[in-house]
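thread: overnight batch results

M.L. [08:02]
morning all. the overnight job finished for the chain we discussed friday. pasting input first so we're all looking at the same thing
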Amino acid sequence: PMSEKRVVIVWNDFNWQPLASEGWGPLDTEKGAQLFRGLAQKSGVHDITEISRRQCTPDGIRNAIFQVGGRCGPQDVFIFYYSGHGDKLKDQDGDEDDGFDEAICTVDAVGRCNPGTWLRDDDFSMYLASYVKASTVIVLMDCCHSGTIADLGKPIWLGKAAASISGCRDDGVSYSANRTGGVFTHALCRASQSLARQGRERAHSVAAFYNQVLQEAMPLKAQHRSTQQITLDSADSTHPQSIAWPLMPH
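M.L. [08:03]
and the structure it wrote out:
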């Protein structure tokens, strides 16, 4: 069977009250998600599942990973994209060098957002590693404190070809490109277009893609006064040079 690319897009702009007046939003993440969805569609992806705003609960994300991941065959590629807030929580199980878990700032069923509603990286990585039947998993995180948010160093990832590219390091913040989506999202879409122009017929690795993202990000970071450091992480059993970057727009 042909390999399919299956994509989960999660974005939250926190545009409702009282979150907006508490300073959570509104973010420009809808624009970023739109850019990424366009990239996926132009790259021939037919299986795109999107959840947004109040759907971005821990259960909402878990169910999306469960449903889409369960449709994957081993030869498929599963891609998870998130644009929204990320933050840190005190580590509970001693698995973090810096004493903090990274977290996706998910909301609860009534739309509140606080440390008690967030999705810890321990749980997020467990969902990805256990529910996704594809052997290749790529995680793209345009949010703050996201460098190791997929916890790819954990033993649950052994045997998977898994890589994550994040807008910043665990101690960093991700910037917006002047209300048009995140700097990282813009850079990753431009990098995909650049690699496609260099030749769609040859495979470009995730490592080559990451280097291209860094190049595309330089003028964007200068323009938007961003100091973010886009980071690449991969599972211990794999090397980013041995994973093909799946999104090559026509």
